[in-house]
Amino acid sequence: DEFYPPDGDTGVELMSHDGEEAGIVISGEIEITVGDQVKILRAGEGYLFDCRRPHRFHNISTEDCRIMSACTPPTF
């Protein structure tokens, strides 16, 4: 379970690591950058990407965002 308040993010820099990540937006909306692609996902929409590609999550809305996600291999 991930939570992003308004303007919350995973950091200014794009990150990368081994594995894959999939998730679904439970509430709110989130801007996800993977490589040179930028998408805005809303509640009910999901994603899947190779985590070796540089990526970043950023809540650009004025509402809280909650995401249910899973990574393989697991990260803590």
What's the total count of β strands? 7
Task: Determine the strand fraction and express it as a percent band.
Answer: over 45%
* Shape, principal axes of CA atoms: globular
Strand order of the largest sheet: 1-7-2-5
| Computed CA radius of gyration, to the nearest angstrom | 11 Å
Q: What can be said about the biggest beta sheet?
A: 4 strands, antiparallel
Give an account of the 3D structure.
0% of the residues lie in helices and 53% in strands. By secondary structure, it is an all-beta fold. The strands form two sheets. The chain has a four-stranded antiparallel beta sheet, with no helix packed on it. A hairpin with a 2-residue loop joins strand 3 and strand 4.
Question: What are the SSEs and their pairings?
Answer:
Elements: E1 2-4, E2 20-27, E3 29-34, E4 37-42, E5 46-50, E6 55-58, E7 65-72
Antiparallel strand pairs: 1-7, 2-5, 2-7, 3-4, 3-6
Keywords:
76 residues, mainly beta
Compact summary:
This protein has 76 residues and is mostly beta strands. It has strands at 2-4, 20-27, 29-34, 37-42, 46-50, 55-58, 65-72.
